[in-house]
């Protein structure tokens, strides 16, 4: 085993580990007064880790040279693409957090705490390990490192009842999902004699026994919880609503990327010889998520709960690309992931800007009535994001859905795609409701607070990417997604 080559492959993880440990000590010694410095250093570490990914993303990496530590990790183009999205989403969660924690929205716990950026850093580290996992032991290590940090982030406002409830629900249901995943892994180990992905794949070649099939189902069920796919979505609305809004923005972006990428790697690299066994499961989860996410959001008045159902709906479209079970579907899935992360981050930045002069946040439709009169720029950005999430051309969200539908039709799953298109029309109702309330209702006049430059920069950047200007990025984005998908199928 060449340790020097292995350490070179995981240089971003080493940087995040060193930065996380160092900043943890700084926070312990200096207390919450160091929170700003710790947040800046954490964002710099994430940016530095992202820069390390650029050569591999540009030139593409696959083959045996991507394996580290005897095959425990695989740092190919697919992993690099997912890591880049994770790091960008984590930086976004750090940028928008100080204004929230220093405002009345944080209640009696006003003031950003030093552990927040450290937890974001360790969560990003766990997700980085997840997407490079090439062994079930590595998979579980990364998954739990991310999950343990996420449970604390959800409940970081200790005196806020909603935050504490969100953290507890997330912990209990997350522990249940981890148990299901572990049981599935143990079954696969028992029937194949190994936890390494290639060895498990080899053991599952040919006719699959009933016990191995149960192992496959349990593993996919555990992973479905992490991506909040139906029928394992029950935690999502409550956690999204109860967690602090910057944490919700983080949950809606980075962990989704990591969990989807991990699910794709497991299905193709571990269960690739049994496509018929898992394709039906993924098809059901995709269609059920699309339909339930569309119908569940219709009656919601809380904006964060509505975006939670929107997240479930979009996960369905992402799984649509996975269900195609070929390289084109995987590439479309990655394109959708990038656009979805951009849209979600922009939406939650806009929600964080819905504040009064004291900084208290507003989260209901009643609060944004007539927003176009009092805050036209925020209302205009939300209009762009909502129409993009609905898949209305010429916004970039249309391209995301088009790429997935095209892959579905080319694979011969026309009826499957038609059902998804019909359900997307249902979902357009609650996105258009945003526009109706903001532009046609009488102004509520409660959103009077001013936002900082960081919020405006991030809002403008995400809105520009989602707008028709974003189509200028599609050639590069498609090329990166194709390279990533090709590396995923290199050994398949």
How would you describe this structure to a colleague?
With 492 residues, this protein is an all-alpha fold. It has 21 helices and two strands. Strands 1-2 form a two-stranded antiparallel ribbon. Strand 1 (67-68) and strand 2 (73-74) form a beta hairpin. It is globular and about 65 Å long. The mean pLDDT is 87.
Helical content, roughly?
A: over 70%
Shape, per Cα inertia axes: globular
The string of secondary-structure elements, in order, is HHHEEHHHHHHHHHHHHHHHHHH
Cα Rg: 21 Å
| Helical run tally | 21
Characterize this entry briefly.
It is built from 21 helices and two strands.
Keywords summarizing the entry:
492 residues; 21 helices; mainly alpha
SSE blueprint and pairings:
Blueprint: H1 3-9, H2 11-30, H3 35-59, E1 67-68, E2 73-74, H4 77-101, H5 115-131, H6 136-154, H7 161-192, H8 197-203, H9 210-226, H10 236-242, H11 245-251, H12 254-270, H13 275-296, H14 303-323, H15 327-352, H16 371-374, H17 376-389, H18 396-410, H19 414-440, H20 453-466, H21 474-488
Antiparallel strand pairs: 1-2
Helix pairs in contact: 2-3, 2-5, 3-4, 3-5, 4-5, 4-11, 4-12, 4-15, 4-21, 5-6, 5-12, 6-7, 7-8, 7-9, 7-10, 9-12, 9-13, 10-11, 10-14, 11-15, 12-15, 13-14, 13-19, 14-15, 14-18, 14-19, 15-17, 15-18, 15-20, 15-21, 17-19, 17-20, 18-19
């Amino acid at each position: 085993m060449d340790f020097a080559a292995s350490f070179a492959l995981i240089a971003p993880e080493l940087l995040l580990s060193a930065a996380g440990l160092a900043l943890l000590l700084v926070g312990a010694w200096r207390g919450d007064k160091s929170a700003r410095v710790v947040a800046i250093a954490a964002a710099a570490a994430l940016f530095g880790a992202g820069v390390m990914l650029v050569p591999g993303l540009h030139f593409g990496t696959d083959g045996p040279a991507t394996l580290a530590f005897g095959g425990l990790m695989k740092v190919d183009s697919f992993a690099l693409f997912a890591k880049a999205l994770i790091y960008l989403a984590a930086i976004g969660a750090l940028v928008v957090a100080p204004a929230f924690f220093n405002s009345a929205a944080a209640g009696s716990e006003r003031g950003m705490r030093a552990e927040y950026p450290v937890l974001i850093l360790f969560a990003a580290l766990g997700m980085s390990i997840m997407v490079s996992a090439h062994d079930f032991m590595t998979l579980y290590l990364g998954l739990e490192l991310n999950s343990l940090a996420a449970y604390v982030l959800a409940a970081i406002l200790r005196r806020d009842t909603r935050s504490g409830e969100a953290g507890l629900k997330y912990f209990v249901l997350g522990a249940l999902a981890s148990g299901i995943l572990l049981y599935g892994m143990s079954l696969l180990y028992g029937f194949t004699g190994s936890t390494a992905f290639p060895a498990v794949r080899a053991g599952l070649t040919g006719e699959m026994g009933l016990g191995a099939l149960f192992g496959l189902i349990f593993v996919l069920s555990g992973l479905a919880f992490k991506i909040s796919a139906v029928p394992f979505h029950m935690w999502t609305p409550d956690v999204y609503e109860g967690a602090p809004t910057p944490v919700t923005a983080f949950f809606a972006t980075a962990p989704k990327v990591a969990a989807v990428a991990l699910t794709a790697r497991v299905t193709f690299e571990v269960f690739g010889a049994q496509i018929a066994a898992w394709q039906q499961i993924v098809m059901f989860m995709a269609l059920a998520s699309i339909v339930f996410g569309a119908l569940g959001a219709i009656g919601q008045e809380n904006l964060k709960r509505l975006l939670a159902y929107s997240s479930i709906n979009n996960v369905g479209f992402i799984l649509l690309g996975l269900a195609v079970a070929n390289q084109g579907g995987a590439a479309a899935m990655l394109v959708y992931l990038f656009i979805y992360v951009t849209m979600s981050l922009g939406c939650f930045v806009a929600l964080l800007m819905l504040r009064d002069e004291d900084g208290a946040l507003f989260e209901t439709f009643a609060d944004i009535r007539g927003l176009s009169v009092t805050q036209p720029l925020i209302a205009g950005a939300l209009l762009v994001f909502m129409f993009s999430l609905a898949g209305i051309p010429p916004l970039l969200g249309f391209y995301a859905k088009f790429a997935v539908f095209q892959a579905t039709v080319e694979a011969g799953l026309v009826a499957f795609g038609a059902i998804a298109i019909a359900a997307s029309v249902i979902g357009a109702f609650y996105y258009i409701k945003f526009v109706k309330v903001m532009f046609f209702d009488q102004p509520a006049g409660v959103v009077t607070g001013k936002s900082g430059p960081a919020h405006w920069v991030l809002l403008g950047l995400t809105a520009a990417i989602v707008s028709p200007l974003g189509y200028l990025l599609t050639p590069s984005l498609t090329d990166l997604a194709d390279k990533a998908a090709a590396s995923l199928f290199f050994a398949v």
